[in-house]
Write a structure and sequence with these properties.
Blueprint: E1 15-21, E2 24-30, H1 32-37, H2 49-61, H3 78-84, H4 91-95, H5 97-107, H6 124-144, H7 148-164
Antiparallel strand pairs: 1-2
Length: 167
């Protein structure tokens, strides 16, 4: 396959677009320079998750005394956590919990505690138990929100799943 050249110069085209103007198909092939001249921007490549987490923690922590907090179990400081985006031990959840409440809530589907995952190769019984736990949590949330129609639906699904569950 032959690489296209820029419509305005001999450089390789890095921007390719097809537009319909007055029922006519118009193709554009531009190099970086000519695309920038026309005000066309490029979508940035997605950032790695560890970089996103690091930026999120830095953005939500600010320059407060949180940076001087230290986990008494492993000695990890909050500043080190911000740099590495990794906790040192389970005790870090307690040591930095208030500072990370929003982050943990998003990472753990609304909960501030990690409940683990079910491996893909796990038996159907384990997967079903995990589903039941998640559905019971959703049921509690529906009742708290006074969404009784959803709560009744979830209750029925839970009962149906529980009846078919292996003992």
């Amino acid at each position: 396959m032959q690489k296209r050249k820029c419509d305005k110069c001999d450089q390789p085209a890095t921007y390719h677009a097809v537009e319909i103007v007055s029922s006519q198909k118009v193709e554009k092939h531009l190099c970086d320079i000519h695309a920038a001249e026309e005000g066309l921007t490029f979508k940035a490549a997605p950032k790695p998750i560890n970089e996103l987490l690091t930026n999120f923690v830095k953005m939500h922590s600010g320059n407060t005394p949180k940076q001087e907090m230290t986990c008494e179990h492993c000695g990890l400081t909050f500043a080190q956590f911000q740099q590495r985006s990794l906790l040192g031990c389970p005790g870090c959840y307690e040591a930095f919990g208030q500072s990370m409440a929003q982050l943990l809530s998003r990472a753990h589907e609304g909960s501030e505690q990690h409940h683990g995952k079910v491996p893909q190769r796990a038996g159907t019984g384990q997967v079903q138990q995990h589903q039941l736990l998640r559905m019971r949590k959703r049921l509690d949330e529906a009742v708290d929100a006074e969404d009784y129609e959803l709560a009744a639906h979830l209750r029925d699904e839970i009962n149906h799943m529980s009846e078919g569950a292996p003992s």
